[in-house]
């Protein structure tokens, strides 16, 4: 009787062990499949480069079929001369940022809410800055060394972006701490900058801008974005430019068709 009891107990234990093993194996393999699905992502080159963004994800349809895409080549002689009805005003001062390498660019997210762009009575809060090398927009068919994008968002989720050309010259003091802490890859933790950046001093003295309605320049290429591309570039040293391009050699989207859009030349207050 005792032997039968021991045999039954051992049999039951073996069955439990097998069930636990196969259950554990199944639950461990499921996330692997999800991770493999998530590895299909967009890029600036290769099989998932700009020409294929529309095919990478169903949410990226505008990247291939949109009519108001960015960036564009700005032909100065073709800019519209009419006055805009909107009143455009910058409210910029010092801002604190935390920076990260998101795999596509260096992104600086604002941790303060004191900077904004006013379009008529609508306030667009500054949310962050990121960078491209070389520039994404062109002026008369010419690229610049880099381009910064200053993102703003209204309470209704509408977007306004200031495009800031960067050319080789003097060291940029406003961006010095950001560059000194620049993450080399996406595995590095988010870094909090100790000192604020004076955004008013970051911008050029002359604030003539080219305004048009476009899109995000990266997936999902959302349209309806108010673009304000500053005509006068700011400067960065060769060392600063080379430091960025050593991480992101070419992270700019090709020029998109204008499709009869108006480009206005205005001055920011």
Report on this structure.
The protein is α+β, with helices and mostly antiparallel strands and 269 residues long. The chain has helices spanning 2-38, 53-56, 62-65, 176-180, 199-202, 238-245; strands at 73-74, 88-91, 94-95, 97-101, 106-110, 116-119, 122-132, 138-139, 146-153, 159-168, 191-192, 197-198, 208-215, 223-230, 234-236, 264-267. It has a single domain (67-267), classed as Carbonic Anhydrase II, CATH 3.10.200. It has six helices and 16 strands. The strands form three sheets. Strands 2, 4, 5, 6, 7, 9, 10, 11, 13, 14, 15 and 16 form a twelve-stranded mixed sheet that branches. It is globular, with a radius of gyration of 25 Å.
Index terms:
alpha+beta, 269 residues, globular, single chain, twelve-stranded mixed β-sheet, Carbonic Anhydrase II
The outline comes out as: globular
Count up the domains.
Answer: 1
Amino-to-carboxy terminus distance:
96 Å
Going by CATH, the architecture would be Roll
- Residues in β-strands, percent: 25-35%
| CATH topology category name | Carbonic Anhydrase II
Q: Please identify the top-level CATH class.
A: Alpha Beta
How many strands in all?
16
Number of helices: 6
Structural class, from secondary structure content? alpha+beta
Query: What is the succession of H and E elements?
Result: HHHEEEEEEEEEEHEEHEEEHE
Percent of residues in helices? 10-25%
The largest pleated sheet is described as: 12 strands, mixed
Function: Reversible hydration of carbon dioxide.
Enzyme class: lyase
Keywords: Lyase, Membrane, Metal-binding, Transmembrane, Transmembrane helix, Zinc
EC number: 4.2.1.1
């Amino acid at each position: 009787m005792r032997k039968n009891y021991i045999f039954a107990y051992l049999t039951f234990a073996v069955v439990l062990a097998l069930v636990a093993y196969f259950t554990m194996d199944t639950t461990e393999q499921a996330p692997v499949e999800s991770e493999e699905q998530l590895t299909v992502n967009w890029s600036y080159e290769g099989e998932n480069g700009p020409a294929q963004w529309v095919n990478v994800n169903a949410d990226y349809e505008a990247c291939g079929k949109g009519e108001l895409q960015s960036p564009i080549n700005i032909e100065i002689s073709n800019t519209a001369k009419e006055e805009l009805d909107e009143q455009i005003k910058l409210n910029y001062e010092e801002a604190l940022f935390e920076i990260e390498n998101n795999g596509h660019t260096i992104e600086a997210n604002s941790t303060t809410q004191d900077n904004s762009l006013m379009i008529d009575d609508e306030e667009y809060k500054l949310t962050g800055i990121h960078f491209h090398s070389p520039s994404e927009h062109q002026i008369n068919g010419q690229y610049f060394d880099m381009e910064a994008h200053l993102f703003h968002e209204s309470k209704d989720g509408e977007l306004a972006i200031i495009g800031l050309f960067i050319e080789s010259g003097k060291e940029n003091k406003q961006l010095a701490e950001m560059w000194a802490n620049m993450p080399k890859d996406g595995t590095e933790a988010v870094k909090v900058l100790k000192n604020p950046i004076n955004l008013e001093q970051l911008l050029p003295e002359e604030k003539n801008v080219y305004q048009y309605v476009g899109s995000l320049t990266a997936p999902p290429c959302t349209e309806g974005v108010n673009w304000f591309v500053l005509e006068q570039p700011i400067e960065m040293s060769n060392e600063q430019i080379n430091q960025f391009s050593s991480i992101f050699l070419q992270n700019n989207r090709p020029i998109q068709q204008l499709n009869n859009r108006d480009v206005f030349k205005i001055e920011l207050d």
